[in-house]
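Hi V.,

Quick status before I head out on leave. The structure for the redesign project is tokenized and pasted below; the design run finished overnight.
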């Protein structure tokens, strides 16, 4: 299959590229290193510096020669359409969006850049599919944050409503809590419009916060691990907590710690993308899957990580901070996530072995940790 991966240099994009390359798909990788540039601009670091894609791709060619790379900006319609017309993919995995709620809430410049980048890249992709390859399957990485924290169960994308003796299915109501999440909601609405109007085929993977390292023999041997952010702006909570624990920094709980979210291991996330590729919707359908495997409160995560690290002889405490975010700290949360399980996902759950594996990886690169970038530097208020 011919697959285009947008944002192929990222935390999820690079392991997806390895995984699909090993499956012998013909790949077109696209990235212009925006996240690397932003991390440099705001003086944030990843745990292990990695080669850029134009240097890493030669290692992929050791097992799959049918992989190309283009250093272009997906918001540039002319540049993007030129490679899309040339490659004519059967499927496109859309990771090419600014992936940070805190970044989007830092100020007007960051908020506008998030909205502009995410909507423009999505629109350019949709426009190319409509014009040049209408049967191409778009796989968009959404976020569970689009739903917010409603006081009812969160269904998988759709809600059946009965009103005055009539009923219909609607997109589940969205209420994002940051401009990043709002941009994803706009993406969903845009895609749904094109699905029902022009019969496009789309899968929207509503993903919870991702954690973990990509365990792959090839990547490990070649020292081609994916990026692992742990800072206040781009690091996800579990990754950040483990870095804090290994660094003897108290785990920072924002507010009460009662905020509940659905989480997923990086390896499971890559497998979900593969399941989406293998199960495309027919023309004119939008498939929506809630892509997470477990629900935890922040306090539960902290306790779980402290317990696992204790098995390694690492004693770490936790402390509460005034919440820099604007969010409900006490709320109902019960999200459904059965569809990917039905397709064959066998979840890799957050147990002590997983946490210890991650902690050992972090400890190997402990000298690279910059403690100054972990604590929140600004408030959303």
């Amino acid at each position: 299959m011919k697959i285009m991966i947008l944002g192929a240099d990222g935390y999820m994009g690079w392991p997806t590229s390895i995984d699909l390359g090993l499956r012998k798909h013909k790949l077109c990788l696209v990235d212009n290193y925006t996240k690397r540039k932003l991390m440099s601009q705001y003086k944030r670091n990843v745990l292990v510096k990695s080669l850029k894609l134009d240097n890493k791709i030669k290692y992929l060619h050791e097992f799959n020669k049918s992989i190309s790379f283009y250093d272009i900006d997906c918001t540039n319609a002319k540049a993007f359409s030129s490679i899309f017309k040339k490659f004519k993919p059967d499927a496109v995995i859309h990771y090419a969006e600014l992936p940070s709620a805190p970044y989007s809430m830092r100020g007007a410049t960051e908020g506008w850049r998030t909205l502009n980048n995410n909507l423009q890249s999505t629109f350019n992709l949709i426009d190319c599919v409509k014009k040049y390859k209408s049967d191409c399957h778009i796989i968009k990485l959404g976020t569970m944050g689009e739903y917010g924290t409603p006081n009812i169960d969160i269904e998988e994308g759709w809600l059946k409503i009965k009103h005055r003796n009539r009923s219909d299915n609607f997109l589940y109501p969205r209420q994002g809590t940051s401009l990043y999440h709002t941009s994803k909601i706009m993406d969903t609405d845009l895609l749904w419009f094109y699905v029902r109007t022009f019969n496009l085929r789309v899968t929207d993977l509503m993903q919870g916060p991702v954690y973990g390292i990509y365990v792959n023999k090839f990547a490990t041997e070649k020292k081609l691990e994916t990026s692992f952010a742990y800072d206040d702006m781009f690091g996800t909570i579990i990754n950040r907590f483990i870095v804090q624990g290994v660094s003897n920094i108290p785990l920072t709980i924002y507010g009460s710690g009662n905020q509940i979210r659905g989480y997923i291991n990086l390896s499971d996330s890559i497998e979900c993308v593969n399941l989406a590729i293998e199960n495309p919707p027919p023309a004119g359908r939008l498939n929506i899957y809630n892509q997470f495997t477990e629900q935890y409160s922040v306090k539960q995560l902290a306790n779980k990580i402290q317990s696992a690290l204790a098995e390694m002889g690492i004693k770490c405490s936790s402390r509460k901070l005034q919440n820099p975010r604007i969010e409900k700290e006490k709320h109902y949360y019960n999200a459904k996530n059965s569809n990917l399980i039905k397709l064959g996902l066998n979840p890799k759950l957050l147990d002590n072995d997983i946490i210890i594996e991650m902690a050992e990886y972090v400890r190997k690169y402990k000298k690279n940790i910059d403690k100054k970038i972990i604590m929140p530097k600004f408030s959303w208020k």
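Above is the designed sequence. Residues 108-132 form the longest helix (25 residues).

G. will cover questions while I'm gone.

Best,
W.
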